[in-house]
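Write out the 3D structure for:
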Amino acid sequence: MKRALLLLLALATTSFAHAQGAKGDAQAGARKVAMCIGCHGIPGYQASFPEIHKVPMISGQNEGYLVAALVAYKKGDRRHPTMRGIAMSLSDQDIADISAHYAAQGGNPEVPDTAAPAPARVAELLTKGACASCHGANFNKPIDGTYPKIAGQHADYLFVALRSYRTQGNPNIGRANPIMGGVVQQFSNAELKAMADYLGTLPGDLRTVPQPRFR
């Protein structure tokens, strides 16, 4: 399993390399987020598709991951009608600038180097999924910048996201990712939820920076 994971890791890193072509400008990005703040700039805001859940916190997220995610929505590798419509309207430079803007809003000096111990059953699940090998021992410092920080992310969003990696054949829901697709197939929905609930309790860099809907 570990050998296959490393092979998929190398392939995914190569596939994301093209997303790093443009150099992001955080100040320019601040002027390009009008379509983002209506969801990601309101604390506690909830989406209703594909089910009700809090929209993810993206302030403080890794710049490379935000670029990779937006590129995936634009290409259709991530299937979500609203996010694809937004991503399709963005140039590569827009994506780079917006990602730099949100990444610059992080930085929590109180995040420990290792995560607090998980309940025994959850710890077994995290080990089985080799989660720390990609997302870091504290789940806030991934080994590659194109992977997300997941510590402290909304648990309900994490649960929806994890399930989306194994959704097949749906034009509006799902994520094509060889690493995560293989990982989540090992778990039941109850197990995915248990991991998401634990990860959501951990301290991390992710936060929502309040923004007005209109400015």
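Residues 1-19 have pLDDT under 50 and may be disordered.
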